[in-house]
């Protein structure tokens, strides 16, 4: 795999009232990315913050995505909450509906939905949750992308059911031998140069080094970093600069997916 263009996404709007979780303000980050995953109120976010963040994304030409999580403000959505598949999917529906209305208010459509934190990891390994989530998307937002890991059940079921889907590469997370990210509730400061080198290698060679020291293959259309990672702005700038220097453009996710589909058809 050798990419000439890639989407760059970040979790945004992750505050509540006067409190903020992010290491940098959304204005500093929004000009560096092409897709925004906007918190929808359960792990972070509130109506006014959702409104401001959608408006900011529109001003920068950034794709608007809903970022639903477990109902866990205290734990920032990084603790698993027990519940039936139906209950959890209903929580997702509630949150996506809220963000979609703010997108409509500002004259845009919902580009994508990306579950947050512990919910993202749980949906990735649960066939019931993945199927319920994808079924909702097929009914309510058939043209919106699902953002997920390429090795997840979510990806497999989205492809099977015909829902647009985007695979992510995590710049500021480690990988295990299965190709899954190593989930962490708290992450320390990263070296921007090392993260940028990791991202460029993934784009140019389709490889990433795991926590065990082995190289595995990785395929993706979007790169993710987190606004609560310490030093996130410096990291994002380093990623963008390194990608551009290596001939990889940051582009809207719709362009990336169309390009990938064209390449796939030519290969058949």
UniProtKB/TrEMBL annotation:
Pfam families, alphabetized: LamB_YcsF
Q: Which InterPro entries match?
A: Glyco_hydro/deAcase_b/a-brl, LamB/YcsF/PxpA-like
Gene3D superfamilies per the UniProt record, alphabetical: Glycoside hydrolase/deacetylase
Q: Which domain of life is it from?
A: Bacteria
NCBIfam families the record matches: PRK05406.1-3 (NF003814), PRK05406.1-5 (NF003816)
**Name of the protein described by the UniProt record:** 5-oxoprolinase subunit PxpA
Q: What is the lineage of its organism?
A: Bacteria, Pseudomonadati, Pseudomonadota, Alphaproteobacteria, Hyphomicrobiales
